[in-house]
Amino acid sequence: MSNLLIKFVHFYQKFISPIFPPSCRYYPTCSSYMIQAIEKVGSFRGFIMGIARILRCHPFIHGGFDPVPDHFTIFRNKYPEKYEDEIIAKRFHPKKN
Asked: What is the per-residue burial (b if ≥16 Cβ within 10 Å, else e) of 51-73?
C-alpha cells in the first residue's frame, strides 16, 4: 500500500504539479512531506499526516521549515530545529546581527 501511495505522489509531482505555479508555503513541499511521512510512520498514518499538512498549507499561514516528526501527529512540528541542517537553518532562521 505504501508503494502505491508513493507512486501516486510521484505521479502528481511529475505530471500535475508542473501545470500550476509553485504555491507550497512549507519546506519540504507538501508532496515531499507526504512521501517522507509514509516512509517514516507507514501508509495509513503517513497519508493522514500528509493530508493534515496539505490542509495547513494555505495563504493565511506563515509557512517555513516543517519537517516530518519522528512520531505520528497531525500538527505542525514543534521542534524543527532538531532536523535542520546548516543550509536550511540559514534560509529559514537567519542570525540577527
From this structure: ebbeebbeeeeeeebbbbbeeeb
